[in-house]
Amino acid sequence: MIQWAVLLLTLLSLGILIVKKPLWLIPLLGAAVALEISSTWYPDLGILEKVLGEVSLTRFTSISIILAAVLRLFFEVEIRARLATIFKDPVTLLLLLYIACGALSLVYSADMGNTVKETLRLLVLFAVFLSIALLLDQDTILLPFHGIHLTALALLPLALYEGISGNLIWQGENLLKEHTLRVNTTFIDPNIYARFLVLGIVANFVLQIFTHNRRVKLIYWACFPLLLIQLLLTGSRGGILTLGMVLVLALFFLPNKKSILGFLGVCALGAGVLLLIRPEIWERMLLLTQDLTVSSPQRLYLWQAGIAIFTDHPWIGTGLGSFQTVFLQDYIHLKNIPDGATLSHTTILTIASELGILGLLVLSAIWVAILGRLYTLYNQNRAHLSVFSETNEKYSVAAGYFLWAMTVFISSQGEGRFFEDPILWLSCAGLVFLRLRQESYRYGYR
Predict the structure, then answer these.
(1) For residues 83 and 394, what is the distance between their CA atoms, to the nearest angstrom?
(2) String of b and e for 408-425 (b: at least 16 CB within 10 Å)?
(3) What percent of the chain has pLDDT over 70?
(4) Which has the closest alpha carbon to 53: 137, 124, 129?
(5) What whole-number distance in Å separates Cα of residue 133 and Cα of residue 19?
(6) C-alpha angle with apex 69: 67 to 71, nearest 5 degrees?
(7) Which domain holds residue 45?
(8) Do residues 351 and 365 lie in contact, with contact meaning Cβ atoms separated by under 8 Å?
(9) Is pLDDT above 60 for 167?
(10) Contact 205, 256 (CB under 8 A)
(11) In this structure, are residues 11 and 60 in contact, taking their beta carbons and an 8 Å threshold?
(12) Is 381 domain-assigned?
């Protein structure tokens, strides 16, 4: 009964937002991504759940965003004009091309059922991407950053509770098998939790650029240790490596170098404190290479299988979503891999094995288009950007969305959610909207 009440309350709340405050659905999506535990909140919907997949707040929010955009397409001429412009954007066309490659792979797929399922999932995410680009406006372009930053901070009490008590509220039976306690709060996987925290740190950097009040900036600075504590409690080596790589990129792409350099100092201090308090985490980090070959050989074997599949089917792969099937049928003989270890965990290898060189070329083209967008915005604002500048510019927002996309991509090399992560599509929608702003006077919308 409680689950049905929660379902009804969720649908009612989302319905009100669709009609009254559609823009608030966008930051809500960021918060919903953090609530993977929401899949336990709702009742079993039977055949409907089999069609739609696992019910969660993320899925409900995604559908609500699509409905809100469709509603406005019917009643607002400006939105229809904006949609035509969105479809002319290179980022949009290349994302659609990737989905088309996946759909065409149905012709030769080793697992047609999974190919259809993955294609439909990507189409839904593409609809979310279009809808966000339609709903955003220049006054709310920073809302997604606020949403993820505040959600990451809100998880701190739960992270401390789990870290201190050792009581994991969800998925504990899986995580407690490891020697080191790894906090996961509302996430199914500590690595995805770590990814979300890196997104929160990037959001902090971006929001600081648009903050001129000294007190508010000090508050943002005080948030850094709170986010770092959570990241360290996850025990995620991939998360820590992702943060390091993203910070290097942030130094290159974001204008507020002082904040980033200062944060690097905070990280160094935190690392020293961690070495004294939790030396086992550092031991786990230092054993990364050994872990690949001794402690967790299945990951290395899965990489070998991915390379073998790509070598045998280099040009067009074996079909979208087919890695698991091909692996089980033809490549599991490589090693005695435990049951359930049937995902490559590495985005590049997954794409290479499923869509071959064609898929890798489209993926590369997407990144080229995104970097081209950044380069264009940088040239427009070059006179205002210096090493220690903190000028409010469209470029800074675009750089933030780019760093979000890169965070998802880098992290997905250790945990395989890339195109499946709504934050990637949200980031791409933000980048496309920034191009729309350049043409706002032509079409008469904000």
Answers:
(1) 21
(2) bbbbbbbbbbbbebbbbb
(3) 79
(4) 124
(5) 18
(6) 70
(7) 1-75
(8) no
(9) yes
(10) yes
(11) yes
(12) no
pLDDT tens digits, residue range 255-292?
Answer: 878 778 888 877 777 666 666 666 655 565 555 544 44
Please report, for residues 64, 69, 72, 332, 441, the alpha-carbon distance to residue 22 in angstroms, rounded to integers and kept in the order given.
Answer: 9, 8, 10, 47, 23
In a domain, 359, yes or no: no
In a domain, 422, yes or no: no
Asked whether 301 and 92 are in contact (CB, 8 A), the reply is no
Tokens encoding 258: 């002082």
Establish how many alpha carbons lie within 13 A of residue 302's alpha carbon, considering only the half-sphere containing its beta carbon: 26
List, as one string, the DSSP characters of 320-383. Answer: TT-HHHHIIIIIGGGS-PPTT------HHHHHHHHHHHHHHHHHHHHHHHHHHHHHHHHHHHGG
Q: Cα(236)–Cα(189) distance, rounded to whole angstroms?
A: 10
> Using alpha carbons only, what angle is made at residue 159 by residues 153 and 164, rounded to the nearest 5 degrees?
140
What pLDDT shows up at residue 51?
A: 60
Count the alpha carbons within 13 Å of 228 in the hemisphere toward its beta carbon. 19
192-247 pLDDT tens trace: 999 999 999 999 999 988 888 889 888 998 898 899 889 888 888 888 889 989 99
What lies within 8 Å, CB to CB, of 60 at 6+ separation is 10, 11, 14, 32
Count of domains for the chain:
1
Q: Quick check: is 20 in a domain? A: yes
| pLDDT tens, residue by residue, 130-152 | 999 999 887 788 999 999 999 99
Task: Say if CB 275 and CB 440 are below 8 A apart.
Answer: no
Unique residue bearing structure tokens 């929160």: 200
